[in-house]
Amino acid sequence: MPFTVDDIEIDGNVISSITTNTDLELTANGTGLVKFENLGFTDSTIKNTVSGAVTVFVLLHPANIIIRPNTKATLFFILSSRLIIIGNQHSTIYIGL
What we know:
This protein is mainly beta. The chain is 0% helix and 23% strand. It starts with a strand and ends in a 49-residue tail after the last strand.
């Protein structure tokens, strides 16, 4: 039996907005994080909340990962050890401007 309040419906393990073409927003107060298991989201930052843990993004289907800062942004990789970029025989890897 679904539970509905305002524009939100909870049905079993599904939380959804019921108004057409609206976003479902989860926000934390102050410096808090919106957490999903070991990941925390705040502003435009994704954080692994487990100290020393590795964050892995896995694509379930053949696809591309594009990290594209806008023209006034800088892309940062803050590393404690090394950055590994691996391509396959069909990959082109560009590093630079």
